[in-house]
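Much of what follows relies on a compact textual record of a protein's fold. Here is one such record, which you should read through line by line:
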Amino acid sequence: MMAWAILLGTSSAKAERMRERFSLRILCALCVSALAFSFGTMPSAAQSQAAYLGFDRNQYPGDAAMKLLRKDFVFTGYWVGPAPGEKSSTWQGKREFLRSLEYGFLLLYGGPDSGNLKSSASAAEKGTADARGAATSARREGFSAGSIIFLDIEEGGRLNANYHAYLKAWADELRRGRFKRGVYCSGMPVDEGHGVTITTVGDIHNDPALGEFAFWVYNDACPPSGGCTADPRAPVPLKSGISYAAVWQFAQSPRRKQFTGRCSAKYAPDGNCYAPSDAAHQWFLDLNSANSPDPSGGAK
């Protein structure tokens, strides 16, 4: 009798262990199914990432215009130095007013043409002087340390060695001035021949001597751009083709016909881009999307 009881107890314990194993298998199967469903329905990075719509233009459009444009845009470009072709910045003194409208900022400072950089030594001197001037101007405008100042580089393709010397000096001096460095440059491939293509942003990004930059890239070609579309659901900068871009300029005024033929209908008849709230077409704009509503951190 005692032997049978021991045997019965052993069988019961074995059955209990079998039930536990079966339950664990069911639980694991359910977990795997849940994970498979989750990954199968998970949105891509481009779909899940938020983007914010902004604009830039060389000349300040006026206080009334900035109030109106705030209906369509979250952030604005802000020149802390003269825009191309200008002797001074018409944006000067406007930071506090724009902050009161709750704009975010993209700080810009004009870079040189490569043809004006005659040697690496003189380029480095100019880079240091320009960065010092940019930091001084940004402070005078009320922008705090840690704000990103984007150097405006208009030319595309590979930059020469002198320009890289300029950029290194610019970055080093801006860091000493306690500002962060950024670059506005082309994200559009240029064919160098023999199967080699280069983008300006890639040329800068791949130079280890330059350190880290925040990148604001322009690529208005359709596609990837959809043209002049001021949709609040702004395209994420990732869709520019540059995975590390913080800001994407996807429409320019006037439109560049060689790149925008497939989306020409999105622009106004005069070839410019205007905000939906600007029914009279008074202020042509360049359109940008960004990963942050305050890409330069200048509203702090």
